[in-house]
Design a protein that fits this description.
The complex is a heterodimer of chains A (175) and B (95). Chain A is built from 4 helices and 7 strands; from the N terminus they run E-H-H-E-E-E-E-H-E-E-H. With 175 residues, chain A is of the alpha+beta class. Chain A has a 4-stranded antiparallel sheet with strand order 1-2-3-4. Chain B has 95 residues and is mainly α. In chain B, helix 1 runs antiparallel to helix 2. Classes of the chains: A alpha+beta (175), B mainly alpha (95).
């Protein structure tokens, strides 16, 4: 781990990221924008007053192909950037602590840890039909410090994560 | 408000015919340089993202396929923008 050094005897138990379904939701705007140049001419033909505008979307000229290529390149690169940020945001549970790694944007990275000996309460929250069906939820970890609270949002199988945290909290001797 | 009826729309035949460009600059040269500017921006963005992948992905096996997929698809799209050839993406794009 480059973000933090593992202590002697410390090992990573689980690494979690936001649920893939939420990530797909983030990709949706990019997908819609990418298919817009192909869908728009077909939609314009359906609306008779707008039909002449469909001729603007002729991709057989050099210029229009260049514009289409750049358009697709922009949205592909943006989607890939979103995937990069998705992958670099993670929650790491070790046998001694919980660490959250937040990659807010490029060159803006925040890593914070909470020792398991300080954990007092772990709450899971799954609300809604889709989150219930797909097992997406939040976990709130409260520590002995009055205002220290860790929240993991949109993680897969939060109950499993809570049980793992509690297992290692009870295994860790209080200091 | 003008009282004349609306004229039916006619799409422009070419974009650059009405532009008066200096003799040294042709429309093709302008488009090519605009594309190079976009590709330069893409290259900087990609370098930054790859740097983050390599530094922070904890040597994950996903890092290299993700970078390779990005490079392959981007190069295909750039080639399409420049020449109309999109390699493996050609069947999916108008030529």
């Amino acid at each position: 781990m480059r973000e933090f050094e593992l202590e002697p005897g410390e090992h990573v138990v689980k690494e979690a990221r936001k649920h893939w379904f939420l990530f797909l939701g983030e990709l949706l705007p990019f997908a819609i924008l990418a298919i817009l140049p192909f869908a728009l001419p077909k939609l314009l033909i359906l609306a008779p007053p707008m039909t002449p505008y469909a001729a603007l979307f002729d991709y057989h000229t050099v210029l229009s192909r260049a514009v289409l290529g750049v358009w697709l390149l922009v949205w592909w690169t943006s989607a890939w950037g979103a995937f990069t940020r998705y992958f670099l945001n993670a929650w790491v549970l070790t046998n001694q602590r919980i660490a959250t790694i937040k990659q807010r944007r490029f060159f803006v990275r925040e890593v914070s840890s909470l020792l398991l000996t300080r954990v007092q309460d772990v709450t899971t929250n799954v609300s809604g039909i889709v989150p219930s069906l797909l097992g997406i939820g939040d976990i709130k970890v409260q520590s002995a410090g009055a205002d220290v609270e860790f929240t993991m949002r949109g993680i897969p199988r939060p109950e499993q994560m809570r049980d793992l945290i509690l297992k290692y909290v009870s295994a860790e001797p209080a200091q | 408000m003008p009282d004349q009826p609306l004229q039916p729309f006619s799409p422009p035949t070419t974009l650059f015919t009405q532009l008066h460009l200096p003799s040294a600059l042709s429309a093709g040269v302008l488009v090519t340089w605009a594309l190079y500017a976009v590709f330069a921006f893409w290259a900087i963005y990609t370098l930054v993202a790859v740097y983050h992948w390599l530094k922070y992905s904890h040597a994950s096996w996903i890092a290299f396929p993700a970078i390779a997929a990005h490079l392959f698809i981007s190069v295909a799209l750039m080639s399409y923008a420049l020449s109309g050839q999109a390699f493996f993406l050609s069947p999916y794009l108008p030529v």
